[in-house]
Amino acid sequence: MKIREKSVPGYDRVLLGSDEAAGYQGIIAIHSTALGPAVGGTRYWSYKTEDDAMTDALRLARGMTYKNALAGLPFGGGKSIIMRNGKGADREQLFRAHGRMVNSLAGKYITAEDVGTSPADMEYILKETTYVGGLQGRSGDPSPHTARGVFRAMQAAAKHKWGSDDLAGKTVAIQGCGHVGYFLAAELTRVGAKLIVTDVDAAKVKHVVDNHRATAVMPEEIYSVPADIFAPCALGGVLNDQTISRLTATLVVGAANNQLLEPRHGDLIEQRAVLYAPDYAANAGGVINGCCREMLGWDVPKTLAKTDAIYDTLLTIFAMAERENIPTYQAADRLAEERLR
Q1: Helix (H, G, I), strand (E, B) or coil at 174
Q2: Binning pLDDT at 50, 70 and 90, where does residue 119 land?
Q3: Counting beta carbons within 10 angstroms of the beta carbon of residue 3, is it exposed (0 to 12), middle (13 to 18) or buried (19 or more)?
Q4: How many CB atoms sit inside 10 A of residue 209's CB?
Q5: Could you report the per-residue pLDDT of 188-197, keeping only the tens digit for each?
Q6: Residue 171, beta-bridge partner list
């Protein structure tokens, strides 16, 4: 295992690691440990270049700092990436190599699952380090909890915009039918919302359509379908110059990280009178579940109450944005930075 450190202004530590025998190339970015050890998942994904992977890791790590601060958790923010090279890799060897890199930080960073990884992968990491959560038989799959938090954020946005958090009869356009999208669809179906869904994976779309009475559309159509709420639950950067002008929704509330391609797109959404729920405030349910259950030893009811408190956090952000006449993404940043101080 070869590990080298990269100096990045504003970040505690950034490591790049490689293990040729395991086919491993990874990045760990620790943004802040001001509130405690950095917590954030491991993403297994294909990138065109190492610079693209680094940019993603840095943005995601910063988002975790702010997410944990807003959620009131005693943890900092970090993120790690294993670069997928398109070749067949021995998954155990790959994740054990990553575990060795995590272990080199001696507890300053604790990982868990993220896009492209699973509780089974975390078990491989556990063979090399104890600094890992999201394990089988413990807090498990974070997806239902992330979905629950997004649902509560959606209710808060509805309350602020329309005066009621009742989502019955509202049309929600869900982009991404993976684990979180599926469980979010279940929450929305339970309260009588109507669903329009899409994904690049037709099998995932069919699963949601068959189980939650959803209507399917092609991926490029999801921005412009008539809907009350747009829920980005796939990858980031989907709110940009090309897509924002196509939105028909009044609310944007989803699970994807880094939904704004650039900060100015938060201003553009504001100019269109669309209420945006900042992603790292809305999607904190998964990290709340993992941290509170596995690291703080909380029971299920107490952890669920903490996830449901996302509703109150979003109402606080919306009220601050209105009071100070700033976009909601700026209000979320200010609130997080207050808590970090």
Answers
A1: strand
A2: confident
A3: middle
A4: 16
A5: 999 999 999 9
A6: 194
Q: What share of the chain is helix, strand, coil (3-state, %, to 5)?
A: 45, 20, 35
What token pair was written down for 186?
């279940």
> What does the alpha-carbon distance between residue 119 and residue 135 come to, in Å, rounded to a whole number?
5
Q: Could you give the residue numbers annotated as active site? A: 79
Q: And the tokens for 71?
A: 């959620």
CATH T-level topology, domain 2-62+77-126? Rossmann fold (3.40.50)
pLDDT surpasses 90 at 18: yes
Domain(s) labelled CATH 3.40.50.720 in the chain stretch across: 143-283+311-340
Q: How many CA atoms lie within 13 A of 34 on its CB side?
A: 17
The Cα angle at residue 86 between residues 85 and 90, in degrees rounded to 5: 80
Q: Are 131 and 157 in contact (CB under 8 A)?
A: no
From the list 99, 69, 123, the residue with the least C-alpha distance to 291 is 69
Angle, CA of 321, 238 and 197, to the nearest 5°: 105
Q: Assign domain 143-283+311-340 to its CATH superfamily.
A: NAD(P)-binding Rossmann-like Domain (3.40.50.720)
What is the dihedral sign for C-alpha 161, 326, 268, 271?
positive
Q: Give the pLDDT confidence score for residue 85 in this predicted structure.
A: 82
Instruction: Give helix 91-103 / helix 119-126 axis angle, nearest 10°.
Output: 60
- Residue 5's Cα: distance from chain center in Å? 26
| pLDDT band, residue 317 (cuts 50/70/90) | very high
Confidence of residue 171 (pLDDT cuts 50, 70, 90): very high
What gap in Å lies between CA 304 and CA 299, rounded to an integer?
9
- Is 3 in a helix, a strand, or coil? strand
Amino acid identity at 223: Y
Report which secondary-structure segment, H or E, holds 97. helix 91-103
